[in-house]
Amino acid sequence: MKILMVKFITACVIFLSFGHAYCLTIKVGTLAPDGSTWYTALRDMGEEWEKAADGKVNIRIYPGGVAGDEADMVRKMRIGQIHAAAITDVGLSSIIPEIKAFQMPMMFNSYEELDYVRDKLAPKLEQLLAGRGFIVLNWGDAGWVHIFSQKPVIYPKDLKIQDQKIFVWAGGTSNFNAWKAAGFHPVEVAATDIFMSLQTGLINTFTTTPLVALSYQWFALARNMCDLAYAPLCGATIITKESWEKIPEDLRPKLLQAARSNGEKLKKEIREMDNEAIKVMEKHGLVKQPVPAEARKEWKDMTEKYLYPELLANEVPQDMYKEVLGLLQEYRAQH
Fold first, then answer.
1. Is the pTM of this model over 0.85?
2. What is the CATH number of the domain that holds 23?
3. How far apart, in whole angstroms, are the C-alpha atoms of residue 89 and residue 102?
């Protein structure tokens, strides 16, 4: 009887396998919460993929850090637990450190500068990532990083007082050392634990973009925002080369085009929404702290004196930094 049952189940499996269309599920991790702009963009991309592939490929999203912090997601991609992820420079730089050259504080002054430099270097970055086993589906950014704090921060000295405990990504040793060298009080915390860390007092200051602060409601526990565009928060959606090559070859160009179009649409939306996010938070108690010209100069001088040497010595490849700086100077000379 058992032998007959096994044969019956096997026959059913074979029938189902050949009787229905082949379908590949791509598991995608992201820190973005369910319902956020980034989540919606991933969902839309999944719908476009399913349509373009005639149901042969679909996307399953694991939002809100369900798959862990960005370092966890990269590790899980490498062992096949998930297949793709929408991550920031923090996760990307754990694969190729060259990405960090785009996150040097106080380097870029506008999105136009960022786009010019990144577009020029994108082929090289994609080649480096491919060499590590990852395919770039699209590039993006999440707005301009600002300092959010429980006490007002305008000048660097405001952030140096003993009870100002600033969040840095767990595992970011060079960032930790750089902030420490500048006289600040950094605390390493996983991004998934920021809200709890603000509640418990482990940290009381963090750096992120307005849209991220609003999406996660972190601003409710740190209602001062320093009106200083510290750096653009860059990122990308990537997929493992192994998973990409499981997709039928004739479908890949269609899916890549859908992903790139989706990324450009998202980038435009994010850039329009960043200022709107500030307005929404101000209606709910956020105080935007104006930063005068002399304060901006102090921040610039501080970053170049303390943060740059530490980052360039231990984290950011100097050749890539020089390329970024050269292209930035090229753009400024043209404009």
1. yes
2. 3.40.190.170
3. 8
Can you tell me whether residue 267 is helix, strand or coil? helix
C-beta pairs of 156-159 under 8 Å, 24+ apart in sequence = 156/182, 156/298, 156/299, 156/302, 159/184, 159/205
- Whether 2 maps to a domain, the answer reads no
Can you give the residue range of the structural domain that contains 294? 7-334
| Rounded-to-integer distance, Cα 179 and Cα 187, Å | 10
- Could you tell me the two tokens for 319? 């050749």
* Tokens read off for 208: 């992120």
Longest dimension (CA), the chain: 86
Instruction: Identify the sign of the CA torsion 257, 262, 264, 265.
Output: positive
Whole-angstrom Cα distance, residue 84 to residue 123?
20
Q: For 200-254, what is each residue's pLDDT tens digit? A: 999 999 999 999 999 999 999 999 999 999 999 999 999 999 999 999 999 999 9
> Phi and psi of 225, rounded to 5°?
-120, 120
Q: Which of 247, 243, 251, 205 has its CA nearest to residue 225? A: 205
